[in-house]
Amino acid sequence: MSLPFNQVVLGDCVEVMRTWPADSIDLVVTSPPYWGLRDYGSETVRVWGGSPECRHEWNNYVFPKRGHPGDKSTLVGTQIAPLSKSIGGKTTNTCVKCGAWRGSLGLEPHPQLFIDHLVEICREIKRVLKPTGTFFLNLGDTYGTHT
Question: CB neighbours of 14 closer than 8 A, spacing ≥ 6?
Fold first, then answer.
């Protein structure tokens, strides 16, 4: 398989990396969405976890209109992030049969599920990264404070 050379590759990172051979990438740079702060639209929705053979039956979870636990910046403490309130009213889904979750990274109903999804992504990065490769991961919460 011939991989792109000196190119930015766009797509669902897990799905794209699964098509690449192990130990084949020199550099990965990523800044995942902050939990509970942004909705990137329906194009970013995917099914996480569960069973690929399951005929999913989805239940709905609606984020409260009052905001989300992600409203508080980890950098500022108690300052409210007004833009995160736009997440209120958004719906995510969990399969009642296999536990799969359908939604966008960063819009998980609780932080542990968000961490689980980041770990899934990082495992795939580790698989494709060369032993001499470099991985930059930017995690923060400055968007919520407009800084």
Answer: 46, 120, 121, 124
